[in-house]
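Summary for the lay section of the report: proteins are chains of building blocks that fold into shapes. Here we show the chain for GerMN domain-containing protein and then a coded description of the shape we predicted for it.
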Amino acid sequence: MGERQNWKLDKLMWRIFCFTMGAVLIVTSVMGLSGCGHKKAEEQQVNKQLKLYYANSDFIVNGDESKGALVEYDGISIYVPEKTPKGMTDEEAASYAYTEAITHLWQVPEALKNANTLVTEKFGIHNITCKDGTAYVDLIGKNLKDGGGSLEESIFISQIVETLTNSFHEIKQVQFLVDGKKAETLMGHCDTSEPLTEGLYKTDKDKTQ
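The coded shape description reads as follows.
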């Protein structure tokens, strides 16, 4: 009788041991799968550092070029897909990143002092695409009619060109379009008929004017 009770006790202890180990394995597997899923999600997008260019307020107000007409700011990043998401083409995914970079110019970061922007949300963008090193910035024509004088147009062009060519290695030059077509000028002052490899105005680091 004693041996039978001991056998039952041993069998019960074995079942408890097996149950405990099974629970541990299940929990470990779930945690492992969760960790893999989290890692996979992180790997699906990468942090893209931008170089954004804003107007130097001293230059806008007083014409002071001693510190350049543009101010460079690299304190903003965007997350872009590491691989093209399903349902999108490579061109569409890239266009999204380019456009997002330019929309960051709409507002001057709080950390950036003595700066302004001439690239605002009143200037609508159809899209921005890139082919063979040339970015095509297609602007909405009706929003450009009262854009401003030659200074405003020059800074507007410079902010966009410098931001795109310095933020994206695949972009070597920028061709402006208006409603899908090449335009001699955007606001009536500057020549935009050909692609631009750099802005009309520069920063204090590399200004040539």
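Put simply, here is one thing we learned. Helices lie at 2-43, 57-62, 90-103, 150-167.
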